[in-house]
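Re: that chain you flagged

S.,

Sorry for the slow reply, it's been a week of failed gels. I finally had a moment to sit down with the sequence you sent. For the record, here it is as I used it:
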Amino acid sequence: FTMTIRPLIAATLMGFALVSFARAEEKTIVGVAAGNDSFKTLVAAVKAAGLVEALEGKGPFTVFAPTDEAFAKLGKDKIEALLKDKETLGAILKYHVVSGKVMAEQAVKLNGKSAKTLNGKEFKIEVKDGGVLLNGKVKVIKTDITASNGVIHVIDAVLVP
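Prediction finished late last night. Pasting the structure tokens below so you have them in one place:
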């Protein structure tokens, strides 16, 4: 009896894992960010800038997503001012998005090059001490969070164009 139950339980658990993975893949970049407690400020900023629809679009997009801690480095007053200035906020947020799906393995190969963002400006990519730095100071701290319309890489500071 035990011999036949174990494989059944294992197969069932594996099925649940595959279903939950498939559901994560179905979420857009905005959906994935909204489902993560580390991106509350980012999601609020995307909504305030009116960019939800764009980032739920077909893509693919690569988003360098600042955490709540990264936004906190700007200071509460600066964040509140940005949330009221839709144009500036939109320009800053678009500076965190690159067209196409660039996985970490590909990003590392871009050492010394620049990436053109959706706001038209570029940021520099460097590989240093085994990690990736943007503009020489913003660290990529987590990579390859996939979504149905692209990928998210988590960064430790807000990129300012």
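What I noticed first: DSSP finds eight helices and seven strands in the chain.

Talk soon,
D.
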